[in-house]
Design a protein that fits this description.
heterodimer, A: mainly alpha, MetI-like fold, B: elongated
Chain lengths: ~325, ~375
């Protein structure tokens, strides 16, 4: 197990290294640097051109912006690894690490909530659909899963937003809590308030993932229900419920776990899309705002951190799969 | 799609009474029935697939003859944020008219007491008759044939806004119809590129195998490891804001294509790996057929059905991405028109609250996404008729 884990982590580190190269390239492909930012803000404040040039050059020297690119890359990456220093956000006017540290946990919490809900409901509904194949319930659920995969999430978000804001006159969106709860300690009321604010985001992001899980689970379970060991279990006289839940479902779950590598980015993207529409202070709006003003450090740091999150998620899914399915040999080459 | 359909109909026609093969296994033994006939027969049984096919055909016809369907010049401006007009047979005083007509929306002299915007409302003094094949603004069919006939518009070359107008007073219905061109064009170009690249990389990698395959798959892993949406957003920041709209659109296409090919190549490689072990491919190798011949004659035809399905599913993905990027203001720049660009205004709460009809481009996007997905769904079940 240790060998398997270390292999996966080593592979992930290699991917992360290349990701950081791309991220760095994106940061530097944009014309202009921090020195130009200092220059223009000084000129805008009324200082002379000579003075502004001098300060800008000093800033370039201080941050090492005159160094050759490889040296700058080393500087940037050691800053991240040793000090957690991702650079300075011009737009938020504080270290990028702070912005990320504030918003990323929220995004991950939301995405995880959606993920758990989507898995629970998706798998249960998939079981219901598969055990009642071709009945009205199956047809209805199939239609629902088609809708869930088809309806674009950000459009659904716009429509729900419109209904909430202008038909129901609700004001519970765009923030996590109502004003009176913002500084309060955790309590049941505060939790209810939180749910009232974030349910549209969770609902929309869950819907798509649920549909995806349900479709995969239904197909898998239908395959498994035709297997010989299921027939054997029935022949032994086991009740149908036990046959399905003890013999068929655990075996149908494996491909779903192997799918997590696909589902995770899907859920994360869903959360980001919906949060952008609702302008909920998570990663999504931060990326868009920073893009709009050309604050490349924030954009690309989020890119890097999200990629890291996905890699970790994939490793967890792999480990989970190998724990659940002894047939998968740990340490064997899966590529 | 037409390429699948036309020969199929021709072959099926002489034997209309024949029962469709009930079991997939007997289809192969029936003899003389081509793959296309079987696919078409199976596809026809799928309701959602047929609905999708009809809708996709309608969308393409709409995009090709966009100017003919558009009632009003999409670039001409009129009263801003004017609400949709109602087409009616009954006049305001209750009298009946055999020809449907509308009351055009005009700005009045009075101001709204709250917002101080000029009040808009129907002009009851000058109703306009609505008709089919009406003379309207001039355009060029296929870019060469001058024409001025429009399918459905108000007579007398007067602008009438069936879905209302946007903030600059441009007709939403016409812009939606014309915008389908850019939106679908982006989708088609991106999907063409990703299909060609994805398929060739997938087949080569899967067929050659060995070290080449290992390295290519590493690279594919790497591309897939990126969180897609943030990467699109990060890459689109690189486009200079001052770039002309053609350069801008080319860049968006390049970014979308650069990231979408990987998934397809992974799927195609999987198929190719499975195929390379099948007897007829081994037999071809044994008789000394060249790699090119094996790939094009034996592997590609067996992969292509999967690719066609992947393409139909990929088109709505791109349309959606374009509309989402446009919603954020990063896809298409004026004077080009696309659905994403039209949705850009819907980002402001107050605007959609006061003028909900500017959400109408959503309907275009929804129909497109639904149509291609339904078509792909039907095709997926049909491409494997055996």
């Amino acid at each position: 197990m240790v060998r398997f884990l270390s292999q996966r982590i080593a592979a992930a580190l290699v991917v992360l290294f290349f990701l950081s190269l791309v991220t760095f390239a994106i940061i530097h492909a944009r014309p202009g640097d921090y020195g130009d930012f200092v220059y223009s803000s000084l000129v805008a404040r009324g200082s002379s051109v000579v003075e502004a040039t001098r300060v800008a050059d000093a800033a370039r020297k201080e941050y090492g912006l005159d160094d050759p690119l490889p040296a700058q890359y080393l500087n940037w990456i050691t800053g991240i690894v040793t000090r957690g220093d991702f650079g300075h956000s011009f737009f938020f006017n504080r270290p990028v690490g702070d912005v990320v540290g504030e918003r990323l946990p929220r995004t991950i919490m939301l995405a995880l909530t959606c993920h758990i809900l989507a898995s629970l409901f998706g798998i249960s509904l998939g079981i219901i659909a598969a055990t009642r194949q071709y009945s009205w319930a199956d047809t209805l659920l199939s239609f629902m899963s088609f809708m869930g995969l088809t309806i674009p999430r950000f459009l659904l978000a716009i429509i729900i937003l419109y209904i909430l804001a202008f038909r129901l006159n609700s004001q519970n969106f765009g923030t996590f809590f109502s004003a009176q709860f913002s500084g309060a300690p955790w309590s049941w009321d505060k939790f209810v308030d939180l749910v009232q604010h974030v349910w549209p985001v969770v609902f929309i992001a869950t819907f798509g993932g649920l549909a995806f899980n349900m479709r995969v689970m239904r197909a898998n379970l239908l395959d498994t229900l035709n297997a010989q060991y299921v027939e054997t279990a029935r022949a032994k006289g086991l009740p149908e419920g036990a046959v399905i839940l003890k013999h068929a479902v655990p075996n149908a779950l494996h491909p779903l776990i192997a799918y997590q590598g696909v589902v995770l980015p899907y859920m994360l993207t869903g959360e980001i899309e919906v949060a952008i529409v609702f302008s909920l202070a998570t990663v999504g709006p931060a990326i868009v705002q920073s893009m709009g003003v050309g604050d490349v450090y924030v954009t690309s740091t989020f890119l890097l951190v999200l990629a890291g999150t996905l890699l970790v998620g994939n490793i967890i899914a792999d480990v989970l799969l190998s724990v659940l399915d002894p047939r998968i040999r740990i340490g064997g080459s899966r590529e | 799609m037409t390429d699948l359909r036309v020969p199929a109909e021709r072959t099926v026609a002489p034997a209309p009474g024949r029962e469709p093969a009930p079991e997939p296994a007997t289809g192969r033994l029936a003899g003389g029935e081509s793959y296309r006939v079987l696919v078409w027969r199976r596809f026809r049984r799928s309701v959602s697939g047929m609905v999708g096919l009809v809708l996709v055909a309608a969308l393409l016809i709409m995009a090709i003859f966009a100017d003919f369907w558009a009632p009003v010049d999409p670039k001409a401006s009129d009263v801003g944020f004017s609400p949709p007009v109602k087409v009616s047979f009954f006049a305001a005083d209750g009298s009946f008219s055999p020809v449907p007509f509308v009351y055009p929306i005009i700005e009045s002299e009075e101001l709204d007491p709250v917002t101080f915007q000029p009040l808009t409302g129907p002009d009851y003094d000058s109703p306009l008759d609505v008709g089919l094949f009406v003379k309207g603004y001039p355009y060029e069919l296929f870019g060469v044939i001058p024409a001025d006939i429009h399918f459905f518009a108000a007579r007398g070359n007067q602008p009438v806004h069936f879905l209302g107008t946007d903030k600059l007073g441009r007709d939403l219905l016409s812009r939606g119809i014309i915008g389908s061109r850019i939106s679908l064009m982006i989708a088609l170009i991106v999907v063409t590129i990703t299909t060609v690249v994805g398929t060739s990389v997938g087949i080569t990698s899967g067929y050659l195998g060995g070290r080449f395959d290992a390295w290519v798959q590493r690279f594919v892993d790497f591309v897939l490891a990126f969180p897609q949406l943030p990467l699109y957003l990060a890459l689109t920041t690189l486009i200079p804001i001052t770039a002309p709209s053609n350069v801008f659109i080319a860049f968006v296409i390049a970014v979308l294509a650069a990231l979408l090919w990987a998934q397809l190549s992974r799927e195609v490689r999987g198929k190719t790996l499975a195929l390379a072990r099948i007897e007829y491919v081994r037999a071809a190798m044994a008789v000394g057929a060249g790699d090119g011949r094996i790939i094009f004659r034996h592997v590609l035809p067996n992969v292509i059905s999967h690719v066609i399905v992947a393409v139909t599913i990929a088109i709505p993905t791109v349309v959606l991405l374009e509309s989402f990027l446009g919603f954020l203001g990063f896809a298409v720049k004026p004077p080009l028109i696309s659905w994403g660009l039209m949705l850009q205004d819907t980002g402001t709460f107050s605007v959609i609250g006061s003028y909900p009809w500017i959400l109408s481009p959503v309907v275009f996007v929804l129909i497109t996404v639904f149509a291609f997905n339904a078509l792909g769904d039907g095709l997926r079940d049909a491409v494997d008729p055996y």
